């Protein structure tokens, strides 16, 4: 089931869209707290976002830009600000389509279906992993944390991806080395230790302390 996040401050419109899309077997949620839409996006992990332009605190362009920093999920702008300038701005900020208000719910569903089909017909999925505010961008191999971007080497990225895919589970050292060896030259025990040390330093320098735990004699984990 595809998940759709509705970012619309007119609750009557938001509920109308949610009810109609639910009838088409989409899992939908709408925003009620507009202070940190990025956090709600990460928590819900939608396959598509319906985004108004005029919103409390920050406008839709701002939130589109924030989402685009961590994800390529399709975004449809829905707004009464439908002059050419705003439509061009929406596309330039990373929007995939634009629906002017007022709109027909049948048109909304048709555009949603078409965009989902184009985006996920080849098995697309979310390209971020988030834990405790730390966002690993799978497409750029970088970490996003408190508006800071941390670049990772190929090995550092792979190590963190493995650990975040197994949160609260100890991942044995030999399992990590085997995964690293799949695409790189031979990785020995000492090389893994060096990579873990460098990764921890990068995290610590960015204010992410004690993120990777060592389980002596076994491996590593993220709690």
UniProtKB/TrEMBL annotation:
Response regulatory domain sequence ranges: 3-116
CDD domains with a match to the protein in the record: REC_OmpR_NsrR-like, trans_reg_C
Alphabetical list of Gene3D superfamilies matching this protein: 3.40.50.2300, Winged helix-like DNA-binding domain superfamily/Winged helix DNA-binding domain (1.10.10.10)
4-aspartylphosphate: modified positions: 52
GO biological process, one term: regulation of DNA-templated transcription
Domain OmpR/PhoB-type: from-to ranges: 126-223
UniProt entry keywords in alphabetical sequence: DNA-binding, Phosphoprotein, Transcription, Transcription regulation
UniProt GO MF annotations: phosphorelay response regulator activity; transcription cis-regulatory region binding
PROSITE patterns recorded: OMPR_PHOB (PS51755), RESPONSE_REGULATORY (PS50110)
Pfam family for this entry, one: Response_reg
GO CC annotation: cytosol; protein-DNA complex
InterPro entries xref list: CheY-like_superfamily, OmpR/PhoB-type_DNA-bd, Sig_transdc_resp-reg_C-effctor, Sig_transdc_resp-reg_receiver, WalR-like, WH-like_DNA-bd_sf
Record-annotated DNA-binding residue ranges: 126-223
Function text: May play the central regulatory role in sporulation. It may be an element of the effector pathway responsible for the activation of sporulation genes in response to nutritional stress. Spo0A may act in concert with spo0H (a sigma factor) to control the expression of some genes that are critical to the sporulation process.
Record protein name field: Stage 0 sporulation protein A homolog
Species name: Clostridium autoethanogenum
